[in-house]
Amino acid sequence: MTNPSSSERFLELLTNYRRVAVVHHWDVDGISSSAILGRALFKLGVEAHYCVPKIGLYRPEAIDLEAVAKAKPRALLLVDYGLRVDYVDEVERRLGVDVVVVDHHANAVRAQRFYNPVARGAAEDDYPSTTWVLRELLKLDDDLDLVALGVVGDLGKSLEVKPIRRGLELMASKHGLSLEDLYEASNLVNSCYRLLDSHCIGEVRELLVERGVKGVLASCKLKEKAEELKREVERAAARIKEVFARGPVKAYELTSNSYITSSIGRELAYRHRESIVALVHKVESLGVTYIYVRSLKYNLRRALEELRAKGLEVGGKDQVFVVTCLNGRGEVDLVLEALTSIEVF
Length: 345
Description:
By secondary structure, this protein is an alpha/beta fold.
């Protein structure tokens, strides 16, 4: 568990700042976390300005720092974004205000205003989402539908074999929801970023603040988004090519216009649950190629850390990580080498 004093310091920080900017990840955990914070900040009387980084990028340049500065915050909250610590420091220097990190991704440890139990050595299963970190920091007894939604969004189908499953069912039931409702809501929310619709992300955040998960489930607009995404995924799935197979490692290539990397990658990992799956996905509309690596069986932390030490743009957790390619085939070769030559356990 997080130290009780951490919770007290966090609440004191928020109260003292009075006006903050919240930069959050674009997926369901990031959006749910920002909604939880939105409710908490309102209760504390703290004014908040929200910003979503450029979808698909994990660098200071992905954040509209000019827009953030115009909001004149006294602090910037980076929520579930997984930004490298040196990048966090750069953002703080450029803005000239405190940066507070709330996260659960594998990362180096920052000396101050850093609320990431996993980076500090906690087990990933104990903090499966940033909503779970906020649950402890804010000592939440309500908003548990949002907490559970963040967990379901990050774990996906692998949740079925996790001990936390029963606890999430109980959380959902307190709000008149089932686990299947949370799966559906997760897909609806994630359709926004997968179709590269930043405006939709902001609308969903407000919907979660005002109406919770049930508001998402009732949204006709999100259902239309999800249907559009389903058609895109089906078209893309027909174009996937297997390009590498050695031992437990299988690699695939795909080109598409939508940011459906995790949709396809998760499904491949679930289909090949005894393997390590690497999806090399070129998103033409972003002009970026990603290498999405996931395994339901193997711990990938050592590979992640080795690739990060070699200077690759990589972020993730024990069973999943993503490399943003800057040098074409170079990163692909390094990833496959790391996955096949080091001991994954």
